[in-house]
Amino acid sequence: MFDFLFGLLSHDLGIDLGTANTLVYVRGKGIVIREPSVVARHRKTKQVVAIGREAKRMLGKTPQAIEALRPLKDGVIADFDATAAMLTHYIKLVHQQPKRRGLPSIPRPKVVIGIPSGVTEVERRAVQEAAIMAGAREAYLIEEPMAAAIGAGLPIQESSGSFICDIGGGTSEIAVLSLGGIVVNRSIRIAGDEMDEAIVSFIRLKYSVLIGEQTAEAIKIAVGSAYPAAKEDRQTVVRGRDIETGLPKSIRVGEAEIREALAQVVREIVEAISETIEETPPELVGDIMEHGIVLAGGGSLIRGIDKLIAVELKLPVWVTDDPQTAVVRGCGKLLDDEVLLGKVKVAARKV
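The line above is the sequence of Cell shape-determining protein MreB; the predicted structure tokens follow.
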């Protein structure tokens, strides 16, 4: 009874705590926050200076007294204090207490958080602890491929098999789902971050120009490609430091070059999908052949990655609508479905 009343009064949240971006869904309102998972703070006092976009602009540009960092690495918490500070900031943004005297305080929110399927028990507890410290009254953890499948509208509770591949910033989550559970899954720590690193290495080796990860990400978004297209005239100007002279240098790179840079990372993702299919029960393979592979996550926006997977595996492949928000939309749907939440949660904690 009390949980029901709290649910009516509080702003329950669905959170995609991603390596690259954090998205927050508020029950009844939709996605209200979409910010980079970056925190800037003083090195000595640990006082937070900036969070989100403002902090991301500081990456690689901070003075000695300030550090700008990404508190999550490969989908798990690398810096607990920074993660807790980030979660606290976002929960307070959407769950501010009334300031007028005489009004009752808003109950603490229930929070559903998407996590990689390959995390350890210790890593799960760290996420729950961070959510409780940030002000949640209940913290439910959902595996990201399950949340992405729910967000994409796949029939996960039916006996037919659904195949989801969520290519995020730190991990690629691959899973076959049936009857409300994960039948086969694979979580590899090869995703968007590794694509950025591959572009940095390629530019350094081919042009002797040193660029940062933010520049590499901008190149990936501008001319990133996984499969040859009919028109390959996309180019972008890259500015960095000449390794030989130490002076600034501008170069122009094309789509074909960046596809070459990304080839090995994309190949490993395709191989992981292939290995997951090999482990899938034969009856479910038939369903996958009929319904295809669904791609979600920011990595699925790489031009032609769906065509490459379809050609390599000889299966239909399609990208879900707004793939970057699939996980957080799935978490949001679970806020309204207590029965399904009870089935698919991997951990739960109440204050």
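Note on the example: The two ends are 16 Å apart (CA to CA). Residues 1-8, 97-104 have pLDDT under 50 and may be disordered.
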